[in-house]
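Fold sample X.
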Amino acid sequence: MEMRSARYFVAFLGSFAILLAACSGGQQPAGGGASASTGAKAAYGGTLTFSINSDITDMDPLRSGLFVDRNLMYQMYDSLVRVNPKGDIIPWLAEKWTTSPDGKSYTFTLKQGVKFHDGSVFDAEAVKWNLDRYRLTKDSRRLAELAPVDSVTVVDPSTVRVDLKTPFVPFLSQLVDRSGMMLSRKVVEAQGDDFTRKAFKAGTGPYILTEAVKDDHYTFVKNPDWWGKAANGDKLPYLDKLIFKPITDGDVRLTNVRTGQVQATNAITGKDVPTVKADTSLVYQEIPGISWLSLVPNRTKGFTFEDGRLVKAVSVAIDRTEILEKGPRQGIGVVGWGPIAPSHFAFDAGFKPFPKADIEGAKKLVADVGKGPLKFELLVSSGDAATLQLAQLIQDQLKRADITADIKTLLFNEIVKLQQDHKHLGMTLIDWSGRIDPDGNVYDFNYTGRPNNDSAYSNKEVDKLLDDSRTATDPAKRKELLLKAQQIFVVDDPSRVWYGYGVAQLLTVKAVQGIEPYPDQLPRLQTAWLQN
């Protein structure tokens, strides 16, 4: 399961436009070459220190379940396809691909001459081994993402065919992320269980991991043999070294940027955004993102929110605009009612089922259930004042409808475990980092028995609509099916309470050039360079 704690999302609210690139064609440039802001020619050399908001959990894409891991992964691993800063899917290790008329077979033509950091060859056999490892390993976190895959066949050294059990329209979007990341079989097998923290020389990416010190720093050096080139023809990457430093406290993180100990970060708290925008020594960038924020009930039989009317009572009682403007986000972001982000192709701008708090409506829903006043435990991640502030604001809003939320703090990983086991007593305040296709924001959270369905939600009509949306090749039909499902799991029989969308941020010192935020909030630093 991939989630972020509520404190992570304090800074990231909004949405972005997704435009799928054509599914065949030549290699797209890796980007970069000159600074968009100064027009200066890119320079080689130097070290960039990038701060992330927490330590990573796993360097193995098969096991990784948290957003933060991918900050490192996109530097060391190449995926079969990727997104550009606009959100378009573009060729990467797969130079081009074709799809069979029935939509059940994808044939990928691979980039030739690519080697893993350990010197082993990237080819069709490597693709088959990686995809089969992700989809067939019992405890793989990629099982759900690759569940539609029936078989992977090596056609020749530079061609691989993936056959699906049924047409699966969002398939390429899965290969952008960890399901499409390519690793050296030799390194993975040699390291065994230690690979999770010692993924040295395992990728084909622009940077090579050389040092991993838990809770302190991760060092990468330039891959001199990387295949990528900038738009102007420059060989990439430009930097000699990358250092990633986990810094959990937002104030400390910003201080490190201001003092030059860190040159970049993608985690800025809402209260600091006006300040960094006004600081002429810094460059702040922000674009719509794909993450969403929600309260997660437990609808398991015998628990407080077994009856969906009580979930709806919470949903209609909260004031989303007040949460956005007066909460820790302080106006950074967008109010939301569901998981389909504003610029996903299936977004419906008219879908605002609870535009204002409906106190009397919430009271009536609770009364109709007939079990007395609604009182529940609200679990939030410990150790961050912003998370607690958000929970207290929601708590105060619910009081107006005579709903009592008892706030309890717990370690983030402990909350995740309770959710996965469907044992949380009431609701949790944990959110989702988002995916480029709406299927990744919707399916696993609302389909019966799926891995991310932490609310234990089950609705046969929703299941049917979501299954049909995966096979519908007409975008208009797909949108119709997704919106019908959303109406049910948000309003008619709610699976959880959504209240906002995320933005993607990037803060750098002025000397950092050649990088921009991506809609998934993750840095790709192959084009980064330092101006003297």
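Fold sample Y, listed below.
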Amino acid sequence: MKTALISVYNKEGITEFAKELVGLGWKIISSGGTAKHLAQAGIPVTDVTEITGMPPILDHRVLTLHPKIHGGLLALDKPEHKAELEKYGIPWIDLVCIDLYPLENEVKNPNATRESVIEKTDIGGPTMLRSAAKGRRIVICDPSDRQKVIEWLKAGEPDREEFLNNLAAKAEAIVARYASISSTYLSHGVYEGIFGKKVSECAYGENAYQKPASLYHDINNDVNHDKLAIHSWELLAGSPLSYNNICDLDRMIQTTTHIGAGMEKNFNTVPLIAIGAKHGNACGAGIAQEPFLRNGEGLGAVDKMLQGDLRAIFGGSVMLNFPVDEKVAEELIHKFSPEGIRRLLDVVAAPFFTTEAIEILARKKGKCRLLANPNIEKAGLNSLDMEPRFRYVRGGFLQQPNYTFVPNLARTVLASSLEKTVLMDLILSWAVGCTSNSNTITLVKDGRLMSNGVGQQDRVGAAKLAIFRADDAAKFAYDQQKNSLASSSSAGTFCEENFSADLSDATAYSDSFFPFPDAVEVLIDRGIKTIFSTSGSVNDEKIVELCKSKGVKLIMLPDAEARGFYQH
């Protein structure tokens, strides 16, 4: 008869698992509360104290830390070891099912004390897991593996060594991360660790010579269940995601959730959102209201997104926070595109896709990846990524809290004097700008990203780049229309005489303060009427006076609170 040792903090589902083992002819050993729980369910169980001959001691701190337990886990399947087990009355233990005290929950508890954290630090559990792993027993530390083990046992234990090795590896990883949590807490952050599980392999990294490249997710994510985590997106069609696809997807999630959070915080609603990205940064973005979708058009946000930069979106990636049906798919591929030429997209991510939409968007050789996750629909304040961000630097890594600041424009003096549509444009420009590579100046008009002047070393350069990109996109759209290669509905966003974008009454967002008035002058000269930036420059008063003299509304929040640097 085989023997299983079961000791769990969370009793959910453990009775069913134990019954399955008993049904297969197993004997159950357990301890304390778990033994009582199983006995009350009518499951035959032997208490650990009957094996060790000792009651729990030191306020239950020592119970399973005993040779008669660990000997049964560490003994090898050879005559000498089996003879010793028999000599000392030690049972051979074939399986350990353990979960650990919720140390991380206690660490995150705002009312936690050093004493409460220490008391929630499991010692016996991790030790049994490691003994079982070393002894090549069946070791279960993840509740999701319980049914897998039952099915494996019923199937006759196929590929036994590989199966046991995978369970042992997971147990070691869980224990290592558990110990790291304790170390980080006790050292007040002096020690920190990153623990991940490989979930996919990429053909290569950013460049073809960077091999191997893989996606890992936090091994604790199975517990926290981040519903928008990269591995939570379902690949409906297309090739596996590349390294660059994953980077773009991560950035689009950040941008989309920031737009949703900003709109929800300021207007109590999350509009329809369409994001187009190239090399991580948004090259197009649009928002529209719900009725567009119900009328079967669903296209207001898509139209605005595409017109942000028709050249850049070709070969780019798209994220929508609303379902993709046949009409939306056709819009993504053909709207504003030359007749007979499909717009090529690398990634389209959305809550859902209809069968017809999947067929329309698919590309040869799986070059268009279609990703579905219903949790992106109407994602707002509760969808912001709250986990710390890490970045490798030579010889180590940086860690910082995530990008979670969301402005409340109602607290600003000028907010009451601005129309709601202008305020929404400000939020859209902020959300795009603060999730784009700094330095950034972002221009938005009528719920549409006009341009994004990303990654510049100075504010004047960012302002000039934003204007240049807006003009260049308008000229490109005009050329297509002039040659009858695109729908005439792309007109109206530029001036035919000089092919410049119509930026009159547009809004601008700067991801930090203006050190001098020069960049502000560049924006004002092109018709920008509302600017959102931070304060903190020695020239703040000059910039305020310049805006007043030109009739430009200037909203400023403290740089220490609201600066929007991203991927610096």
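Sample Y note: The longest helix spans residues 160-186.
Also: The first strand starts at residue 3 and ends at 7.
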